[in-house]
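[STRUCTURE TOKENS]
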Amino acid sequence: MPPKSKNTNPLLQAGQLPETRGRDTVDTSKNAAMLSLEVATNQLPLDSKAAPSAENSDLIVTAERRSENVQNIGSSISVLSGDTLTTRNVNNVFDLQYQTPSLQVTPQFGSGQPAFAIRGVGFNDYSSNNAPTVGIYIDEVANPVPFATNGMMFDIQRVEVLRGPQGTLYGRNTTGGAINYILNKPTDTYKGGLSVQYGRFNATKIDGYVSGPINDRLRFRLSGQTEQGGAWQHNEQGASLGRTNRSAARFLLDYDANDTLKLELNIHGSHDRSDANGLHLYAPMTALPGQTYPADQSRYMTHWGTSSAFAREVGIHPNTKPFSHIDTGGVSLRSEQEFSFATLTDIFSYDRMHRWEYDNFDAFNQGLADVAFKTNAQVFANEIRLTSNDTSRLTWVGGIYYAHQSLSDQYQSGFTDSPIYGTDGDVNYDQRVNTISGFGQATYHITPQLRVTGGVRIEHESRDLLNLTSHYITNGVITNPENGVAHRNTSFTKPTGKFEIQYNPVSNDMIYVSFTRGVKSGGFTTYNSQNDALSAEPFKPESLLAYEIGNKLSLPEAHLKLNISGFYYDYRNQQIQSATFNTMNGGMIGQIVNAPRSHLYGGEVEATWTPIPNFTLSQSAGWAVGAFDRFSSLGGVQKLADNAYAGIYVNRKGDTLPFPKFTLNGSASYRWTIGDFYLTTGMNYSRRSPYHSLFGSFYNVPAYTLWGADITLTPKDARWTVAVFGKNIFNKRYDVTRNFFISGDHVALAGMPATWGVRVSGSF
């Protein structure tokens, strides 16, 4: 039997915390409350039995293991329902940024590895070994390996995007925020569904599930998805690039051992053999002396090809298309034991990841700047925590978290045809990371209208870089065979914490003020390691002090919700993708460094309004401004009289931090009743202001706005659904990132052109 509810706190007023259950009840397990601004569900989930309501009803959440009205939780969080993700054809983390404010996700140089930023707090790095500033979680299990976070999004109940540092209750500390995927769970009755989708560029997607009881205590859910096709780029010969070829499956098993003990097993895996993204030349290429190649006439044109020497080293053909092959697999086991005073939760997880990727970072058909990754990683983690019941003024949670991560990586760079280097690189290393932390948080209800929350976390992490070797390869011969570093270590023991005050001046209105400290791990620069002694030096952990104030207002009679938040960040040792110089030849080498002091400030506005039945409007806006307060970076290299080299450093004080200052998102939907059917129509848009690059205005990414639309037809019993959707329906031509890998080679990754699709779904 499922565990019984313990929502008995005498301070929970019925008008603020209604005891509803069903579709409007959701569950979180930590300090991740949900702000449902995407409540207009334009399409039913496959296992739904009723039509979606267009009314903007309040959600009841169980953040911190107790039921609360979402509008009474003092956190800046957005939630996207699984219905919204399906309706708008959100397939991966890159699509997610266009559905919520202040979130930016970009593929590094078009690689398969995403870089996350929330409110301008981000970390750009295409290597495999460093932790992101934004934590990625699936049912509370952390994934600290960035290349494995771009997984397939299927059979998901909702996605929560938390803004601000997470330094108290989450499995791992982060400075930017967290993205939580909450999965659909096994059901008490037999259910199943199948969805088939076809879209532009011959893109197909098939997903389905089956769920139900095995006996009165055991339930299962088996789900999966496959995506194929969709190549939207091409080279000058007309060959296409961008084909998707990936599949994933998940098996869930829930067991109610008795009235107080529940076990949840999750076995999952994915297999990806897709093409990588291609870059285009957005300005003439002058990397080859005495030669100029014009910019590409189309953003959707790209180029690939490498030297025969680098192809032999990587194990490919010189004309092989860029590819991103990532395989993942793992298991997690969650147990919950209820006692009279608290609930004991244990979450064990083990995951393995493999990355084999080949990219053309030069957008050219010669070996100027080509790269390959061969990475194996595994992560073991266990968290145990005790959460009090809702029976008194004081509620609390405390626990211990441990994780061990091991990684082996080979990074290969092809510079055979480069006039600066004229050689290839081969970097090999191992990395071990051990993390242990203790945490606790408590909330005291001073009155029914006023409560205070305090939390603290002490985390120790040790990160070891082992067996680092960096070799030049010229004509198949290693020219520096002794170049290597045996061992480097970076570690820290740091506290993080949170203090928050929440006050309800009137019914349905809540004001909160919070102070939070977050920390992100340090690490090592492991790409282009042409000078081991320099590259092996670690960069420091970064920390962030966040001050936030917000107001959450609900007007049930007006069917309106309006949430406003403002923040100020004091940033220390911000990790920046910059450069240093090679003392041997004077060339500039990419390296991650620390900016000692910087700051950011801004805020968000989110609103949902249902002015008439079945018609829902939503609008959100994020604004952030940041600058360096103390930071100098390499701006060039000068040759000295004795043939030595020295760096030319530029004072960056006052320079704008690299992120869009404004993000806007909005949608409108209306559900029509036509006899025994519902017809739902919707439109949505997302706008990003210009991205200001640290490398100068020439590499700024111009602003762009994307529009989407959808139409869904379903009978009232929701047995089937036919839907049509469009993304970037006005065919906006835009870039998502601009950069250079070698001097004179100006490359950009284009966003996708207009796409459309038709989806047919059925359930039983």
